[in-house]
Recover the amino acids of this structure.
């Protein structure tokens, strides 16, 4: 973990938050979880309702002590996201919060001016949507269709921006914070044109943010209709996945019965043999686009620490050089061509 004052990050707040101001703020948090989800959070996340605000205050105090220049939201609801994502381990929650902000400063191409209107073309292409109904465990299903992306239409980073905004919206409800979410990735139509855009340097950044820099619990990644070339794609991604996350990738191929064992057909669209009607991408697009103003507040404020020195956080420690990545990518690229 970085030493005090080594790490300065700008976030949505325009003025510093001082300890006296934070402590004087009323606890406006009001739990929206059902009794069943309260019990689930207690069992799976070690969240004790009677200690909840005490735990939030402990994390808030750690932020103020260890990272006094970290411009971040410190309200109860926001900090609870990080505590739940790390099962109320204070140190891990703090590091996740630091990583969350470090990713923004370390990858400006993704996070600069990040608002739904700037990725409308990705939404219009049908690249992603969220299914209207959760699974039996209460987990929302994020549906990705990489084959809808054409490199000649827009850059790969735009798809990352669209995924990140979607996750930001999905993590707002407490139900998702407790239940987590499931990913359904349909690789139909993915070929060498798409696969060749992803190298180790880019893969590490994407995996690093989603795995270690965002307060969400990804419970499963279901891959369907994967072509032979997916062997090469996964070879690029897998070295950066923690073992627990790698085990959550399930490859179904074209076997929909295998998929139904993970995601019931009753909540799947007709395109995947389900009973939930045609796949609708328009509703989720509308949801994001209607949230434009909240994302402007979150991501598009002037940076009061512009030009300040920023050391790497643990999230990006040991990141390979471009030369190393080029060398590594030569070997992986040969696999892509072989698979193709």
């Amino acid at each position: 973990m970085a030493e005090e004052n080594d790490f300065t990050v700008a976030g949505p707040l325009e003025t510093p938050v001082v300890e006296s101001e934070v402590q004087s703020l009323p606890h406006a948090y009001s739990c929206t979880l059902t009794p069943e989800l309260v019990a689930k959070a207690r069992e799976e996340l070690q969240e004790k309702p009677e200690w909840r605000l005490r735990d939030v205050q402990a994390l808030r105090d750690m932020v103020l002590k260890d990272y006094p220049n970290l411009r971040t939201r410190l309200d109860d609801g926001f900090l609870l996201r990080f505590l739940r994502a790390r099962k109320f381990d204070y140190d891990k929650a703090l590091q996740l919060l630091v990583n969350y902000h470090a990713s923004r400063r370390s990858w400006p191409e993704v996070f600069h001016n990040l608002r739904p209107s700037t990725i409308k073309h990705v939404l219009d292409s049908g690249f992603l949507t969220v299914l209207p109904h959760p699974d039996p465990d209460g987990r929302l299903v994020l549906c990705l269709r990489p084959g809808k992306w054409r490199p000649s239409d827009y850059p790969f980073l735009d798809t990352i921006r669209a995924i990140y905004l979607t996750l930001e919206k999905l993590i707002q409800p407490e139900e998702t914070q407790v239940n987590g979410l499931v990913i359904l990735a349909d690789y139909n139509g993915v070929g060498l044109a798409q696969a060749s855009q992803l190298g180790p340097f880019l893969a590490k950044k994407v995996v690093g943010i989603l795995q270690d820099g965002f307060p969400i619990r990804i419970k499963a990644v279901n891959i369907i209709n994967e072509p032979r070339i997916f062997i090469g794609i996964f070879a690029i991604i897998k070295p950066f996945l923690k073992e627990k996350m790698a085990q959550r990738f399930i490859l179904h191929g074209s076997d929909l019965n295998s998929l139904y064992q993970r995601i019931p057909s009753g909540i799947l669209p007709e395109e995947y043999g389900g009973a939930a009607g045609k796949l609708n991408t328009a509703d989720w697009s509308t949801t994001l686009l209607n949230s434009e103003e909240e994302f402007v507040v979150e991501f598009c404020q002037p940076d009061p620490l512009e030009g300040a020195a920023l050391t790497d956080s643990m999230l990006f420690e040991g990141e390979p050089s471009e030369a190393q990545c080029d060398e590594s990518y030569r070997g992986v690229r040969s696999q892509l061509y072989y698979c193709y």
